[in-house]
Amino acid sequence: MPVSIPVSRVTPSTAPLTAYGERSDTVGSPSPSPDSLGLSVLGTTPTLSRPLPVSSEESRLKCMRRGVLFTARAIEENLAETGLQVRKAFITLTYRPGVPWSPEHISQTLACYAEWARRRGFPLLYVWVLELTKVGVPHYHVLMWLPLGMTPPLPDKQGWWPHGMSQAKWVLSPLGYLVKYLSKGLSGHAYPKGARIWGSGGLTARQRLRRAWYRAPAWLKRFAPSGEVCAVRRCDGGWWNMTTGFWYRSPWWVEGFTTHGPVLRWVGWAPDDIELRGALC
């Protein structure tokens, strides 16, 4: 049975909101108590902040940028530690006019590349992003790290991308190329329904855990000891820290919606908003 942690209604510190709608306070607290978090205890009456309209698409893009750049840096760090000499290939996949987009297309193409790499004895390290043209047509950019001597086949020539054309070139600064494409923003069109806008392959389990923690909300990290990396995931309208067993309701309430996304309001936490759940999520 969930165990509620008795804390009074609290509000965030006065630190400004970052670009991700999070507080910019430093992370670090060994226990989920308001005092140790530097939060003001205001009794049990909700203390509401000003409404914060959020653009769903912009928020999604910002989360994508964080995940993509973290993944690319993690791959580069891992290669530096192993000493493996690689080249970086930047591959673009486009659609022919009239060919409908499908979420399976990128997965099928990358599965062919993964099999190609497996037969040659090396794991495929990659990160990809979905971008929209000015008229809203999807296309993909894939960055691959390949051992010296390996040249990736053009997927349209191999039958791995029968939906249009492909281009490939070698790049010296993969992060520079990613930043260039990730900084373009929205084209004025919505992503196709059900579309993943980025993905990756080749990270270790620990690197994936670090990435999830890196992308977690800033308020959640403040409940963990400084410097600790915790396994977390979304659960029941909040977040569950699988390392500690504590579940935290999100301190943001959805107050309404605009045409661009939800309107959020910071309300802090009530006594029953933090629970010790064990394995119930």
Brief descriptors of the model:
five-stranded antiparallel sheet; 281 residues; disordered N terminus; alpha+beta; single chain
Describe the structure.
With 281 residues, this protein is α+β, with helices and mostly antiparallel strands. It folds into 2 domains: 3-47 and 216-276, no CATH class; 56-204, no CATH class. It contains 6 helices and 15 strands. It has helices at residues 56-82, 104-119, 155-158, 174-182, 205-215, 218-221; strands spanning 3-4, 10-11, 40-41, 52-53, 86-95, 125-132, 138-147, 164-171, 198-201, 232-235, 238-241, 246-249, 252-257, 262-266, 274-276. Strands 1-15-12-11-10 form a 5-stranded antiparallel beta sheet. It has a 5-stranded antiparallel beta sheet with strand order 8-5-7-6-9. Helix 1 runs antiparallel to helix 4 (174-182) and helix 1 (56-82) packs antiparallel against helix 5. 23% of the residues are buried.
